[in-house]
Amino acid sequence: MNAIELSHISFSYDNQVDVIKDVSLAIPKGSYTTIVGQNGSGKSTIAKLIIGLLASKSGKVYVMGKELNEENVYDVRSHIGIVFQNPDNQFIGSTVADDIAFGLENHCVKQEKMQAIIEDVAKRVGMQDFLNSEPTKLSGGQKQRVAIAGILAMEPDIIIFDESTSMLDPQGKASINQQIKNLHKHKNITILSITHDMEEVAQSEHVIVLNSGKIVMEGKPMDIFKQEEVLKQMKLDVPFAYRFSKKLKKEKIIDDCVCTLEEVVNQLCQLKSMI
Ligand code: ADP
């Protein structure tokens, strides 16, 4: 079953120019998909169409098998959690625990069940030692981890990361990318991540490349990175690990290109063990 499906979606903000042009895509349940594209290519608009914040001009949106319409938009949205770009804009509570509790209260979860849920989700994102901390005193990466914990507490089927690492330092970025990887391991959550970070793209299962409101490429990260020249024309880069592995391959040190640092290290370790 597909968690998200768009069928021939077109959308215009001004009823004149289509910023999304006949886009069809399918995101299977439990999968990890990244959407990349330069600024203005339509990534955020697609996310807004999926959660029903915008209504398409033509085409259909399906979430967890249900066609999105005016009547079921709130029900459909309850399946989805979103981690936004700015970590500072997502806090309501005065402590991390309060913040996670807020969503649970809204979902009428009983008080006696709350503490266990809060502790569990905080642990899942490695923030169990910060439950009494003020969110404002946390680093950007920690704030995003709390935002993820708040979403996990709601047990969504789908989490959308909307440029969630773009305001973070490299360490924060790496920690959120690791969190996303961990979430994906369990396969019970579908992950859709809109990102500029090619290191994150490399760790996803499926990549959709958008340009001027159209899907121009989609496939496995390696299939996309092989189209380096096409990516360059769209001002998109390939990850460091891919470039590095290409050099190693050229020097005949390794046989195949890879796209994550972990894979480069594995290849080099294999070599070392053969020497
Ligand atoms: P991305 O997320 O890839 O940067 P967007 O989805 O934000 O792209 O934007 C796609 C296109 O829609 C761009 O041309 C942008 O200028 C336009 N756009 C985005 N939001 C609005 C809006 N609220 N009103 C009018 N045009 C918009």
Describe this structure in words.
- This protein is α/β, with parallel strands linked by helices and 275 residues long.
- The chain folds into 2 domains: 2-235, 3-Layer(aba) Sandwich (Rossmann fold); 239-275, no CATH class.
- The protein is built from 11 helices and 10 strands.
- The chain has helices at residues 43-50, 73-77, 96-106, 111-124, 140-153, 170-185, 198-203, 221-225, 228-233, 240-250, 261-274; strands at residues 2-12, 18-28, 32-36, 58-63, 66-67, 80-83, 158-162, 190-194, 206-211, 214-219.
- The strands form 2 sheets. A 6-stranded mixed sheet has the order 6-7-8-3-9-10, sandwiched between helices. The chain has a 4-stranded antiparallel sheet with strand order 2-1-4-5, with helices on one face.
- α3 packs parallel to α5.
- The longest helix is centred in the middle third of the chain and has 16 residues, at 170-185.
- The radius of gyration is 20 Å and the shape is globular.
- The termini are far apart.
- Bound molecules: adenosine-5'-diphosphate.
- Residues 13, 19, 37, 39-45 line the site of adenosine-5'-diphosphate.
